[in-house]
Amino acid sequence: MKFYGFRFNKSISKESWSTILADGLKIKPDIFWYTNEYGFFYHEENINQSINELIGLWESELSTNISMLITHKFDNFSERALLLLDSYQRGILLNLSEVVLLAIINNEESFIDEFFDYFSAVDSELLKTMEAYLNNDLSAIKAAESVFIHRNTWLYRYQKFQNISGINLQDLDDASFFRLWLSLQKIT
């Protein structure tokens, strides 16, 4: 499941946004609003390409700028990422990894610190197992072999990692977020 955070530079009626989403994406998503300027919706399938193609049209129809974020869950970190994205880029759809890079480029220290703490609830054994999965081209068998565990143990750890973090490593956006986190852990 993917969550799509959105932020407008002015208040938009909920009905207008709901209609535009339904017409453009050919779906009627449940929209969760924080204010009349931002909120999120989710979809089971990857609709990133459709959103990228439609975002300019939506801005014209609504007479506003739109910032959109792809995330694995809409939590405080994702909300902060959406606000950060909106302060630097509009009219664009970015994933969490891209927003983290934007924060690094713009030296947004508090956001970067929060990013470094993102997987603090995940124990090191799970992190190593999931890193092995990425390093073995998403092969559970090879990942299990590389960390010397049974495939069922690997599956248990994978499910536990997903439950704790919300990350689905078979999803490119989620995998890139975790890979960026791993890479930055190594170099800092």
Describe the structure using short key phrases.
single chain; 188 residues; alpha+beta; Alpha-Beta Plaits; Arc Repressor Mutant, subunit A; five-stranded mixed β-sheet; 9 helices; 57% helix; globular
Characterization of the model:
The model has no long low-confidence stretch (mean pLDDT 95). The protein has helices at residues 14-25, 48-62, 76-88, 96-105, 109-116, 124-135, 140-146, 151-165, 172-187; strands spanning 2-8, 31-33, 38-43, 66-71, 92-95. Helix content is 57%, strand content 14%. It has 9 helices and 5 strands; from the N terminus they run E-H-E-E-H-E-H-E-H-H-H-H-H-H. The protein is of the alpha+beta class and 188 residues long. It is globular and about 55 Å long.
Q: Cα distance, first to last residue? A: 31 Å
How many discrete structural domains?
A: 2
Uncertain ranges:
none
Using the coordinates above, name the CATH class of the largest domain: Alpha Beta
Classification by helices and strands: alpha+beta
CATH topology of the largest domain, which one?
A: Alpha-Beta Plaits
The percentage of residues in β strands lies in 5-15%
Which CATH architecture of the largest domain would you pick? 2-Layer Sandwich
Which overall shape is indicated by the principal axes computed on the Cα atoms? globular
Q: Rg to the nearest angstrom? A: 18 Å
What is the string of helix and strand elements?
EHEEHEHEHHHHHH
Strand arrangement within the widest β-sheet reads 2-3-1-4-5
Query: How many strands?
Result: 5
Number of helices: 9
**Helical content (DSSP H or I, runs of 4+):** 55-70%
Question: What profile does the largest beta sheet have?
Answer: 5 strands, mixed
Mean pLDDT: 95
